[in-house]
Design brief:
10 helices; 16 strands; 10-stranded mixed β-sheet; globular; alpha+beta
Length: 343
């Protein structure tokens, strides 16, 4: 599947104002809140926050596995942030497979383009994002955390059933709320919650925040899985680069007075699974207790190469601790190194 020449980030950067629509209420009751959110997203993208494209990760999430129920607290390990603020986006998958609902048309369950503006800060810095109200709840959220994530998603559709219903050629779907994740030094989620920025009632009659949390798989799961994959031992965050033909990029820049974004991609190399060689030979090898990053491991369907001698395929080996406590403890925080010219 070819990558689109115009990304969601490009569409937002080219607009002075993003016309937001709230799919949680399906009305205009949250418009003032959406206007403030869309302004913040647009300013961040025009300022040049790093852009990460996770099209291949979203394809895996929707079409590469039929897992239906994903638990934010357990199914997304290693959420170590690559930047203090960044944008992750993905396009619609080729299909949607579910162990519960079977195969479905992605046009009925996903946006053509989705994106999330991510802030990743220390608990001390996070107070400014959270605000000065309900500080007791904030202290409970960040207890034991190394990083705090605030995720603000947006979906985009053009010339589909939803835009026809609204009578417009394109829409930007925004929610009047935030998703918050607190993670420890290893990137393990310690707390996850949603907050609503409006007391509006959802279209189902539920409190706004309840439907927002229920729709987390649509809004943020591919974003979280992208972070998981780029933090794998055999995952790489490729340097930011231009991905459109030069002539097309120049035409876009002349028309919109904004260049097309240079973006990072996530590359996972299944063949690179071996552990680094430890110092010293045989039983004399000694290392302090340290965190080993998760990795995708391939076991071939050949004698002597199957997992436990029986299973073939690609398996996720989660982050784990190795070493000898007598040799000390390494407190190194794993981070994905970004090039200095990242944009």
């Amino acid at each position: 599947m070819a990558a689109p020449l115009i990304r969601l980030a490009d569409r937002i950067r080219a607009l002075d104002f993003v016309p937001g629509f709230d799919p949680i209420t399906m009305d205009q009751s949250t418009t003032p809140v959406l206007r403030a959110i869309s302004t913040r997203i647009g300013e961040a993208l025009r300022r040049g926050v790093p852009v990460i494209v996770g099209d291949n990760i979203a394809e895996f999430y929707y079409a590469g596995t039929d897992k239906e129920n994903w638990d934010v607290n357990h199914d997304f390990p290693g959420l170590v942030p690559p930047f203090p603020q960044f944008w992750i986006e993905w396009c619609r998958p080729s299909t949607v497979r579910s162990e519960v609902h079977g195969v479905s048309d992605p046009a009925t369950t996903t946006f053509p383009f989705s994106g999330v503006l991510v802030d990743a800060v220390s608990p001390e810095e996070g107070v400014a994002l959270w605000g000065r109200e309900q500080l007791a709840a904030y202290r409970d959220l960040v207890a034991g955390a190394r990083w705090l994530y605030r995720l603000q998603p947006i979906g985009y559709a053009r010339d589909n059933e939803m835009t026809k219903l609204m009578g417009v050629p394109e829409i930007f779907a925004l929610v009047a709320g935030h998703f918050w994740l607190a993670v420890d030094a290893a990137g393990k989620v310690t707390k996850f919650l949603c907050t609503a920025l409006s007391n509006a009632t959802s279209i189902t009659g539920q409190p706004y925040v309840d439907l927002l949390g229920h729709e987390a798989p649509l809004w943020i799961h591919p974003c979280l899985l992208t972070l998981v994959f780029l933090n794998l031992r055999n995952g790489t965050l490729a340097p930011a680069a231009a991905h459109a033909p030069v002539k097309f990029a120049r035409s876009w820049e002349r028309k919109h007075e904004q260049p097309l974004v240079r973006y990072h991609t996530v590359v996972v190399d299944p063949s690179r699974t071996s552990k680094p060689t430890l110092p010293g030979p045989g039983d004399d090898r000694k290392m302090p207790v340290h965190l080993v990053r998760g990795t995708l491991v391939t076991y071939h369907d050949e004698d002597g190469k199957r997992l436990f001698g029986k299973y073939a395929g690609v398996f996720f080996r989660p982050p784990h601790v190795r070493g000898n406590a007598k040799e000390g403890v390494s407190m190194h925080d794993y981070r994905v190194k970004a090039p200095r010219t990242a944009s």
